[in-house]
Amino acid sequence: MNTKRLMALLGPFVGLLFVVILFGALEPSFLSTRNLMTVAIQTVIVGLGAIGMTFVIVSGGIDLSIGSVIALASVVTALSARAGLPTPVAVMAGVTAGGLCGALNGWLVTRLSIVPFIVTLGMMGVARGVAKWLSAEQTVTPSPEASDALALLASKTATSPGIWITILLAVLMALVLKRTVFGVHTYALGSNEDTARLCGVPVERTKVWIYTLCGIFGGLGGVMTFARLSVGDPTTAIGKELDVIAAVVIGGASLSGGKGSILGSMVGALLMAALANGCNLTGVPNFVQEILIGSIIVAAVAVDRVRSSRR
Amino acid sequence: MSGVEKRFGGVVALGGVDLELRSGEVHALLGENGAGKSTLMKVLSGAITPDGGECRLRGELYAPTGPVEALESGVAMIYQELNLAPELSVGQNILLGREPRGAFGWIDSAEAEEKVSRALAALGGGELSADSLVRDLGPGQRQLVEIARALVEEAQVIVLDEPTSSLSAEDTERLFDVVRTLTKRGVAVIYISHFLEEVRQIGERFTVLRDGVTVGSGVVSETSMDELVTLMAGRSLDEFYPHVPHEAGEVLLELDELSGEKLPRRASLSLRRGEILGIAGLVGAGRTELMRALFALDPVRSGEVRIGGELASAKSPRARLEQGVGLLSEDRKGEGLALDLDLATNVTLSHMSPCSSWGWIHPAQRAAAVKPWIERLGIRCTGPSQRTGDLSGGNQQKVALARLLHHDVDVLLLDEPTRGVDVAAKVEVYRVIGELAAAGKAVLIVSSYLPELFGICDRLCVMHRGVLGAQRLVSDWTEAEVMTEATRGAEVVKA
User: Fold this and answer.
1) What is the CB neighbour count within 10 angstroms for residue A203?
2) B426/A192 Cα distance (integer angstroms)
């Protein structure tokens, strides 16, 4: 079983390795420490989102609102900082805003039994709109001291807190997904919701927590976005939800639920960041990047299909 | 087919199978799950290639490379899980993938209509309309649509894999009529079934497989049930319902006029510790609905449930489980098990506290908690971490049962506990049920298989159109009485 699990992760790993070797050969500076740190920093936002999204997708759901939630959280963090609140409080405010969006998603999915696709499609619009409303449709620039304190998170050094926080959270949440009752319930929901209900799994409560968790990670992504840009931007992360979903799917999760892992999703996020960075370095035009990433998503799922049909 | 062999890696799935099929006959293929029936049928349909032996069709070497080629040679498979598009009409389903094409790829509707009506007529008639949507059909009629699909291609050999497992008695009769019509036209039918009674009814000759080898064949009417069971399982009918002595204690579960949204209607019963109560009835009588309402899976409109003498209301299955009531679902694949997940998860899903603390699971403790059940129930698997969906049907059912045992519920609601389970596994399930009663548990069983209810229950009652009849000792019933009450209701019986 463990070898089987490793095999499932092999595909994305091989893909990542291939991309790294390819660009390393084409452009030696790709492998410089500085550039690798850049890749890692660029992975952070999608990576954080992908942690939360993995829970949602494993449970058989989807969250299309995460891009908008990232923008909203970045605006809320920036506004809090501009209002003179201490940095940790501003961070908490951003994360809480994300968590509230997620909780509302979960509540609507369970109470009104509307499919997650529709609920989160609605939230995608609402959260974006609220972000623009709060910021009066402008970027929010707090005092330099406040943004400098957070910019440290996104520094490109080996001690960059942003990277280490992401790695730490990924490890923690991987354990939560595999080794806690909550995690097993998440898999059970995605594998067969009726069975979960039959077995007394608190289906509604678990779902609300799953979407809240995803919102919280969206909020963290928003804080990181603010740290990188030094401003709260209501128009940031447009379409980011699709990058996040793509990372999770490349990492071996199934949109029909019951399958997926945090490690896989992280590899998926790294693969996309490495590809984007490598293309930029080697001067490959943007449209080629988009074609490549699109192809990789389909190829990843195709490889997975072929493998599972051989079982 | 002679000397057909197939190996998967080191596992010998077929070790030399001989089967002779004559045109115009119904040939019963018997064997427990894992005996090699499915593999043999895959060879026949071209889904896999045998490693040895050969198949001949009308004297000619027959080695199809896929289902399409098999169908073109006149061999059609009708699987347990039906493959129909519910939103399309009967006619569209019958021709699906083989629509007669006219100019520019338009469907030649005149020819299509003709083909469909010819296929439907070959079924012997009448009741199926080419225009009705498959969504609106019952399982029996859907089966007929599948067979009509095979007839469009003028199939000479039709393989029916467990065709009646989800059919009511009436639909089964109708299916048999169709099978007889087909054989009169010279079609040969291979009939795979677990129900020996059915095989006696419809089969002419039989072949028994055990461990991938043909262990016997002959004429059904010249062979006793006992002999068939012995061939299949290597055990005799007397050992079929192992008697585990148990004694009824105090009343544990009482239903007082429990009504669901539609069914059941004011069902009352009482069940003691150490007692096995069976509910017979036709499919659709409301037996499953009773179980579901009792387990709080479906809404209850009125009525009371008392457990241990105290009123026990419940809003969710979770609450019922806490009250010590567990349900084994009749729909193993759709509801009973999370097939993608491993065995350990499925067994412990309802009750993880013994192998976790503060919400964190201890994998070693969990495996240790599951292993005794694997051994006691004889679940054939590679270990607690095997994917449940990879097990055979009988072993899956044991996993579902193991969950109730692991949860250690006091009241077991077992809905069709032996559906799709092979003979040997059935005996194991019966033994476990007996042992549960001996341990002071209360067991309520719904089953459509009467001999089983007579074999293991202490008391028996019948449900007819949502109304639950009186519970009487098994010795006070005859099978005929049960059938009469099941088809016509209790009042008629009294009168």
Assistant:
1) 21
2) 26
**Beta carbons within 8 Å of A300's beta carbon, 6+ residues apart:** A11, A12, A15, A249, A250, A252, A268
Structural domain includes residue A281: yes
Cα separation, B307 vs B298, whole angstroms: 19
Write the Ramachandran bin of B370: left for phi over 0, alpha for psi from -120 to 50, otherwise beta: alpha
Chain-centre distance of CA B342, in angstroms?
Answer: 22
Q: Give the number of domains in chain A.
A: 1
Domains recognised in chain B with CATH numbers: 2-233 (3.40.50.300), 251-494 (3.40.50.300)
Give B391's contacts in chain A (Cβ within 8 Å).
none
Coil, strand or helix: which one is B17?
A: strand
Contacts of A181 in chain B (CB under 8 A): 352, 356, 359-361
pLDDT digits (tens, 9 = 90+) for A42-101: 899 999 999 999 999 999 999 999 999 999 999 999 999 999 899 899 999 999 999 999
Q: What is the pTM of this model?
A: 0.77
Q: Is ipTM > 0.90 here?
A: no
Phi then psi dihedrals of residue B445, to 5 deg? -120, 130
Is beta strand B275-281 parallel, antiparallel or unpaired with respect to B267-272? unpaired
**Per the CB < 8 Å rule, is B339 touching A180?**
no
Nearest C-alpha neighbor of A39 from the set A20, A18, A14 = A20
Contact between residue B184 and residue B195 where contact means Cβ atoms under 8 Å apart: no
CA A209: distance to chain centroid? Answer: 17
B29, B161 Cβ separation under 8 angstroms: no
For residue A196, give the nearest of A5, A1, A60 by alpha carbon: A60
Could you tell me which chain A residue has the CA closest to the CA of B329?
A: A198
Residue range A252-294, pLDDT digits in tens: 898 888 889 999 999 999 998 998 899 888 888 888 888 988 8
CATH number of domain containing A208: 1.10.3470
